[in-house]
Amino acid sequence: QSLCKRLQPDTFEDLIAILALYRPGPMESGMLEDFIQRKRGEQKVSYFFDDMTEALEPILKPTYGVIVYQEQVMQIAQAYAGYTLGGADLLRRAMGKKKPEEMAKQKGVFVEGAVKNGYSEEKAIEIFELMEKFAAYGFNKSHAAAYALVSFQTAWLKKYYPAQYLTAVLNSQIGENKNKDIYISLEDARLNGLNVLPIDINFSYQKFVIDENHNIRMPFTVIKGVSKAQISQIINNREKLREDNLLEESDKVYNSFFDFIKDNRKLLKESPENSSKWGLSSSSNSTRISSVFETV
User: Fold this and answer.
1) Burial class of residue 246 (count of CB atoms within 10 Å of its CB; 0-12, 13-18, 19+)
2) d(Cα 264, Cα 234) in Å, to the nearest integer?
3) Quick one: pLDDT at residue 19?
4) Looking at residue 286, what is its pLDDT?
5) Are 257 and 292 in contact (CB under 8 A)?
6) Rounded CA gap, 166 and 189, in Å?
7) Whether residue 15 has pLDDT greater than 50
8) How distant is the alpha carbon of residue 4 from its chain centre?
9) What's this model's pTM, rounded to 2 decimal places?
10) How confident is the model over 24-50, as pLDDT tens digits?
């Protein structure tokens, strides 16, 4: 978030670059800072050498003269040294693996191609070394673009449909050893001004749900020691009563502990240790459940 505030992205290209640059290598090498300052007009945009502007500007203009992507390394090799697309990909791989013998071979090919295109050998060596430096931190643009698209879509959903988005996130986290993830997402929901309602025998389901007031309701599945089969039985019993009595989704099915226990006596006798966790006190009378069981 702090990076976005500094950079103030206003195009999709900026989002792609942020995801490619927000890594230890580019940050430590100064690439990220150069990109930010050039984007904000605080540093002059240059293309390494004045006599190379014509060749490099079409490739590096979207990233303000900074080599950010592996694909840019390939494009420079094509434009400057006459590489084929396949040959440029071999160069990209060699730079990524940093094998000395392969790099020496590629350097010779690059310089020879650049000289054929009318550039001096000295400049060709400098450009190759610059490419080699940036390639060590370069990221695959196609990957960064995919991440940027997902980031943009989820940010938009969280901004305009926060309850729906965070409910979907929470439901994706239901499962074994996911309690920490759920806790983080619940805190996120609260920080975004959403109410998270406790488990309620009248309104909870297998998954997190949103009520008519855009509150997020906790599910039965967060109760430890309760099986999916038990949860399904509880919900099926409740929804049958709802249907039989022509009740709306916002109406209570159980108005007291007695109502609930009468409908689910067998299930609760099988696992009485979990009976107090079903959210009975959320929307029913506050009678102690232990006293209720004494009368059943």
Assistant:
1) exposed
2) 7
3) 92
4) 38
5) yes
6) 7
7) yes
8) 15
9) 0.75
10) 888 888 889 999 999 999 999 988 877
pLDDT of 269 higher than 90: no
Burial class (CB in 10 A: 0-12, 13-18, 19+), 160: exposed
H-helix or E-strand spanning residue 216: strand 216-217
Task: Give bridge partners of residue 139 from the DSSP assignment.
Answer: 69
- Rg over alpha carbons for the chain, rounded to the nearest Å, is 31
Burial environment of residue 239 by CB neighbours within 10 A (0 to 12, 13 to 18, 19 or more): middle
Q: Residue 110 and residue 95: Cα distance in Å, rounded? A: 13
For residues 137 and 26, give the distance between their C-alpha atoms in angstroms, rounded to a whole number: 6
Question: What CA–CA distance (Å, rounded) separates 58 from 39?
Answer: 16
Q: State residue 9 phi and psi, 5-degree precision.
A: -65, 140
Tell me the C-alpha to C-alpha distance, in Å, between residue 28 and each of 21, 25, 62, 204, 283.
Answer: 10, 5, 22, 49, 55
